[in-house]
Design a protein that fits this description.
Strand order of the largest sheet: 10-1-12-11
Number of domains: 2
Order of helices and strands: HEEEEEEEHEEHHHEHHEEH
CATH superfamily of the largest domain: Jelly Rolls
Strand content: 15-25%
Distance between the termini: 71 Å
Structural class: alpha+beta
Radius of gyration: 24 Å
Number of strands: 12
CATH architecture of the largest domain: Sandwich
């Protein structure tokens, strides 16, 4: 009786590659077995100054075409009526930094106008947007203040909110690591589609996330890749992010550097 000897080929597998492969399998199974929650990107400010629509006739309406930039004059107070505009700060050297996204019925530059700093900013519309510019001198006029005290309260609250946005961003940059800051941006600037104040935006880029997180866009790319590999996130697009492990995403948000 002939005996057949089978010689099986021996493959040398690099340990790191093998572990990565096993991790990939585990994460894929974890993601498939998890409940996907799709969250949509939204602006920082939405419907903050909706009551100013009552006096639109006192302002001048204008439109921005896609990718058009607008620099407000020093005394112009700009209200976004429809669409989303991005507020950029500009340094004397020409460097610029995205500060926040402004949605419908919200002032884009209230704080800058009040401090005479419009020359250090510009507004960018990635999609078509409709705006109204008011003469800011009106907010210092006693007759205007007496006639519209509720609008002045509304304006003050709006400026306070943008100031808080700056303060929290500085706090996060000082005390939280990059992964935490990226996770915070994903959680703070998203909401479910049926949220009461939902305003969908479809232009969120990794560069935008990097500006809001105070880090480099390459770092954001690496963080997102790791979160996907770990089964925390799924697809991340300019419109939405798919979350598979919300509890872990929230834990990562709290990590201090």
């Amino acid at each position: 009786m002939a005996i057949c000897h089978l010689t099986l080929p021996i493959f040398k597998i690099d340990g790191a590659i093998f572990r990565s492969w096993l991790t990939h399998i585990g994460n894929t199974e974890s993601a498939v077995g998890s409940t996907k929650q799709r969250l949509f990107f939204r602006p920082h400010l939405v419907d903050e100054n909706i009551r100013w629509r009552d006096i639109l006739e006192t302002g001048e309406r204008f439109e921005l075409a896609p990718d058009e930039v607008y620099v407000p004059a020093n005394r112009e107070l700009v209200l976004v009526l429809d669409g989303v505009v991005q507020f950029y700060c500009t340094a004397h050297t020409g460097r610029e930094r995205l500060v926040y996204n402004v949605g419908r019925n919200s002032f884009a530059n209230a704080g800058a106008t009040a401090t005479g700093s419009n020359r250090f900013l510009h507004l960018l519309a990635r999609r078509k947007a409709t705006l109204v510019k008011f003469d800011a001198y009106a907010i210092y006029d006693y007759d205007f203040i007496a006639k519209y005290p509720h609008l002045m309260v509304d304006l003050t609250q709006s400026m306070a909110k943008t100031t808080v946005l700056f303060s929290f961003r500085a706090y996060n940059m000082y005390f939280h690591e990059c992964t935490s800051r990226v996770c915070k941006v994903l959680l703070d600037l998203t909401e479910e589609e049926n949220s009461p104040r939902f305003q969908h935006m479809d232009t969120m880029t990794q560069n935008d996330i990097a500006d809001f997180a105070g880090t480099h866009h390459v770092t954001v790319s690496r963080v997102l890749k790791k979160l996907r590999e770990d089964g925390v996130l799924g697809e991340v697009t300019p419109s939405y992010v798919d979350v598979y492990d919300m509890a872990r995403l929230r834990r990562l948000e709290e990590l201090e550097g």
